[in-house]
Design a protein that fits this description.
- By secondary structure, the chain is an alpha+beta fold.
- It has one domain (3-90).
- The protein is 19% helix and 31% strand.
- The protein is built from 1 helix and 5 strands; from the N terminus they run βββββα.
- It has one helix at residues 72-90; strands spanning 3-6, 9-12, 19-27, 32-39, 65-69.
- The strands form 2 sheets. It has a 3-stranded antiparallel beta sheet, covered by helices on one side.
- The chain starts with a strand and ends in an 8-residue tail after the last helix.
Length: 98
């Protein structure tokens, strides 16, 4: 499943191995962290780590969805929400993704 545009919004559909998740700085001087989502040409097994050189940069056009963090506390808040979503999913029956 791809990164889909729904009106003015974008929805990242994870769980199929075809969206790569990267991290780094949006702005190194201001220390703005970012997590980027990039559509892959071919799916990988979920959790596959792709190694890039330290000078690798993804252009904005390659990453239609980015989350930026001006403060580390924002990362903690996102991680708590992800853990809550995980617990909710684990408490229910798996979704058929075929």
């Amino acid at each position: 499943m791809p990164i889909v545009k729904i009106g003015e919004s974008a929805q990242v559909e994870l769980g199929f191995g075809d969206v790569e998740i990267g991290w780094g700085f949006l702005d190194e001087e201001k220390v703005i962290g970012t997590v980027c989502f990039k559509q892959r040409e071919t799916a990988n097994e979920i959790g596959t780590v792709t190694t890039y050189g330290s000078d690798n940069r993804w252009e904005i056009e390659e990453t239609p969805v980015r989350i930026t963090f001006a403060r580390v506390e924002s990362i903690d808040a996102l991680m708590r929400s992800l853990e809550d979503a995980k617990e909710l999913m684990l408490a229910r029956q798996p979704v058929n993704t075929d």
